[in-house]
Each structure stands twice: as C-alpha cells, then as structure tokens.
Amino acid sequence: MLRATKVRIYPTPEQQSALDRQFGSVRFVWNRALAIMRHRYRVHGQSLSAKHDLKKLLPVAKRNRRYAWLAEADSMALQQSLLNLDRAFKAFFEGRARYPSFKGRRGRQSSYHLTGRTAVVAGAIEIPKVPGAIEARLHREVTGLLKSITLSRSVTGKYYAALLYDDGARAPEPAAVVMPEAIVGVDVGLTHLMIESTGRKTENPRHLRRAAKNLRRKQKSLSRKKKGSKNRAKARLRVAKAHERVANARADFQHKQSRRLVDENQAIVVESLAIKNLLKNHCLARAISDAAWGLLVTKLKYKAKAAGVHLVELNRFAPTSKTCSLCDHKLDDLPLAVRTWTCPKCGSEHDRDLNAAANLKRWGILELRTGGWHVPACGGLRKSTPAVVAASETGNSAAQAA
Ligand SMILES: [Zn+2]
Predict the structure, then answer these.
(1) Which residues are catalytic?
(2) Within a domain: residue 233?
(3) CA 308 to chain CA centroid, nearest Å
(4) Same domain, 304 and 364
(5) Model-level pTM?
(6) Does residue 189 sit in the same domain as residue 151?
(7) Does residue 226 belong to any structural domain of this protein?
(8) What residues pack around ion ligand 1 (CB closer than 5 A)?
(9) What is the Å distance from ligand 1's center to 178 Cα?
(10) For a surface tag, which of 155, 281, 314, 350 has the fewest beta carbons within 10 Å of its beta carbon?
C-alpha cells in the first residue's frame, strides 16, 4: 500500500543553504518555463508542453556559463518542476485552478525528489546534493520502497519532508455485504464542516474559529502597512504564522473526524469534488467551506482505503439539497438562505443539510449495488431520516459538547 507521511526536518545551517539553493533552482526553472510558455502562446499562438519541449532546454542551460549553477541542483527535482507546471496548466484548462503564477522568493518553497529505493528511514533522511543526513522527527519508522520525498520550507522558515512509500502490505478488501445502517452520507454545510445522514452535525471547533478570526485581523493589519516598509515585512510574517496555526488546527481536527467516520462505518458516501466545482459558487463562505471539505475528503480517502471501508464518490450531477429524500420530489428552486422546507408532495419536513446527506446515502447505496456489492434492503432507508428537526437539535448539542 502506498503511504504518505509528512515530517518536520531540522537541517544544519550548511544543509539549509544547500536546500535553499535547491529551492531557488526549482523556482527558477518553473518561472523561466512559465515565461517562455506564456510568451510563445501570446506572440505565436503556440502551446508548448513543459514536459516535452522545455525539458530539452535544461541540459542546454546547464552548459551555458550563466546558468551553470543549475548543475548543482538535483536534476530530477528540476525536471519535476516542469512536470508540475504541465499539471498546473492542465488543472487550469479543466477549470480546477487558476492560471499558473510565478513563484516568489518569499512564499512557500518546495522541491520533489524521486528516490525509488528500499530504505528504512528513522531519525534522518538523505537528499541528493545535500551534504550529510538531515535530522528528521518521525512518528513511526518508515520501511519499504521509498518512492519520493518532497521537501519544503514554509513561509515561517520551517522545513518539512513529505515521504511517499510503499510499505509492501496489501490493502484490505472492503466487505462484500454492506449493512445499510453502517453506511453514512456526509455532506458539507455552510455553517458546519460536516453533516451526516445520521443527524450528526459537526461544527469546526472553537479554537479553530478563533484562530481563523485572528488570521483575518492580522491580514487586515497587513493590508494597511506601507509597501516595502519594515513594518509590512513584520506583519507579513505574523500573517504567515497565523496561517500556519489555522492550517495545523484544521488538519488535526480533520484527522480526528475522518478517523471516527472510518471506524464507525462500512461505507462512506460523499459528493465528488469535481461535481462540487462545477457548481462554482460566488458565495465566499461557501468557497471557503468547500476548500476545507476538499482537504477532509483526501484524508477520508486514504484512511478508508487502509481500513477496507468503501468510499463512494457520487459523480453524477444530482440536486442533493432540493430533492425530497423520502419521495424523490424535486423542487425547482431552493435559495441558499432557506434552511428548512416542507415537501409539497409528501408533506415531510426537511432540514436542508440533513436532507442532502440522506440523499447522498440513498444514492450511495444504489452506486454500491451497481458496483456489485450486496446491500440488504432491510434496515430501512426510510428510518435514516427520522423526525428531522429533533435529530438536528441533538446533533447540534453533540457538536457543542465536543
Ligand atoms: Zn416528499
């Protein structure tokens, strides 16, 4: 099974400068390639591929005296920078990301190193073109085939290594018979991180909300500082630190939540992110909650795989909020501000978010059956959405207590 782990590393000053040179070379290759591609497209209407067309320029540049320093960097890392650029363009053309931008000296830095060798990593890691082994703080030993190492330096100056490795073990097969009560539909809400078809609603914890508020305040303060001033540089660092705290708190919380979902269920149903992105929303709060959601789904995916739990991603375009989960009646319109509604056909009352989660579960069951998995009919789809109002109340108090 492929496994990924990210650890903090503690390079010596000498290793730090080697790493910083490496990051600089990777950044230089990215920026130069991007400039060439942009120019070619604007002036000659030609689309270049970084992987094919620009890769050939790397050895040429290294022979040039002006760019000879490029030879000091890990050449695989430079090539990877070009692959990443192609990927960024692909994401842009598929509407998943913005147009690739130039990378600055001050932002997050990274470089990717292919290793492909058997290794036991405990306490230190070795990187091409960096002298000695870099001290690393690992939570557990990494054994097996080490495929790649991505090194990075955060804006606040901390160094990290993300290791991707194959531990040689087989992933467990998911259960052939999936009990309906062990299937959960999980949706993202405007005010909650997660809404489960069981009625549970999970808010982001208070410390995370507080950190996010603090970040916004620091961002505002930064925008008031004069450009190029010392105070602005200080404010920028404060923003970066606040950012880091928010990201860490969020990751920690999401790890706990995804672990719980995987431990409690045989199958988890979510809406595919590709579909979510199609519904591009101009509501800022929504965009932010969707971004956090994406990170959570990633964690759910690998945890589910490692535990042999089905993760069903619904790919079809279906209106989860405005379809009655009891009788399938579809409303023409349901504005974001409407939190509860009554079905005109069957008369049931719906909490907007819980109804969406119930639909995810319902359609997830169909998807599992289509895939050849056995889902017994008993256990009642209908029972999964009992008195919705009561369920949402208990869900709320549970979230507050947590
Ligand atoms: Zn209905």
Answers:
(1) 187, 271, 353
(2) no
(3) 21
(4) yes
(5) 0.75
(6) no
(7) no
(8) 324, 326-327, 329, 343, 345-346
(9) 26
(10) 281
CA of 376 to the centre of ligand 1 (A): 23
For residue 297, the number of C-alpha atoms closer than 13 Å in the C-beta half-sphere is 21
Identify the helix (H) or strand (E) that includes residue 258: helix 230-264
Q: Which residues contact 61 (CB under 8 A, 6 or more apart)?
A: 67, 70
Residue 376 lies in a domain: yes
- Find the 321 Cα to ligand 1 centroid distance in Å: 12
324 CA to centre of ligand 1 in angstroms: 5
Range of the domain at 396: 180-204+257-401
Query: Are the C-beta atoms of 391 and 354 separated by less than 8 Å?
Result: yes
Is the separation of the CB atoms in 399 and 192 below 8 Å? yes
Q: Which of 282, 52, 301, 77 is nearest to 186 (CA)?
A: 301
pLDDT in single tens digits along all 402 residues of the chain = 888 888 899 999 999 999 999 999 999 999 999 999 999 888 888 788 888 888 888 888 888 888 888 888 888 889 999 999 999 999 888 877 789 999 998 888 988 887 767 666 678 888 888 888 889 888 777 888 888 889 999 989 999 999 888 888 888 889 888 899 999 999 887 678 889 999 999 988 888 888 888 988 999 999 999 988 899 989 989 999 998 888 888 889 999 999 999 999 999 999 887 656 655 555 666 666 667 788 889 899 989 999 999 999 987 677 888 899 999 999 998 887 888 999 999 999 999 989 999 999 999 999 999 999 999 986 444 444 444 433 333 333 333 333
Tell me the CA–centroid distance for residue 316 and ligand 1, in Å: 21
Radius of gyration of the chain, Cα coordinates, nearest whole angstrom: 25
Determine the length of the chain: 402
Tokens of 336: 């974001």
100 domain-assigned? yes
Distance (angstroms) between ligand 1 centre and the Cα of 345 equals: 5
